[in-house]
């Protein structure tokens, strides 16, 4: 079994994660696995990815969306709540699977490795999982440059896998720059309070506990950390990157059904082609 683990993965870390991931997802909706990727692989993938990006590949995506990831065009006035109407900006540069596959074979190997799917199945108690069949969106890289961020949202999918390759240095303020943060198990609260003033989430202090939410959590993610996340349960975002360090991570897309691809509209919106 161990022989089948890709060289870029720390085998003992992976084996240990198989044993604790389910409990973490049940308790926190998030399972962090530090040192999942070897530091050699982190360095190699980063330098290859930046070289490819330097050749002019990649797509800068900028959009406005509400917390349910509905963009302006999708937002109807039928349910005119604050949560549905307040929009947040998101922007980043994406390097899609077709652009990275030759230079970052480790990411393709990881994406197709049954062991990664097995980990996700274990964590989320899923009977079966399939690699996305999309030629651009199966595995892709995100680059958060200065000014980029991901606005507050709930994922549409119940599960996600995110591999951290580089994080921004932490500053002095309440919220670190370019950092993933989430309000654990907040879906019920926001469903019950559709007119909640989201501006309070933007302020410098942590307002969550005072209004009946769990306090906002900012996990201390490191290069090489893999994290599994139940992103439909917990409102989350990536804070604005106010530094010159580019945050880089890889997203792996799996589906409950085989042969799922993005439709043309979504592919255009996400990847620009
Ligand atoms: O980059 C991250 O850590 C979070 C990404 C995320 O929330 C998403 O892609 O939906
Ligand atoms: Fe998300």
Automatic annotation (TrEMBL):
<feature type="domain" description="Fe2OG dioxygenase">
    <location>
        <begin position="132"/>
        <end position="258"/>
    </location>
</feature>
<keyword id="KW-0479">Metal-binding</keyword>
<keyword id="KW-0408">Iron</keyword>
<protein>
    <submittedName>
        <fullName>Serine/threonine-protein phosphatase PP2A catalytic subunit</fullName>
    </submittedName>
</protein>
<dbReference type="InterPro" id="IPR005123">
    <property type="entry name" value="Oxoglu/Fe-dep_dioxygenase_dom"/>
</dbReference>
<comment type="similarity">
    <text>Belongs to the iron/ascorbate-dependent oxidoreductase family.</text>
</comment>
<keyword id="KW-0560">Oxidoreductase</keyword>
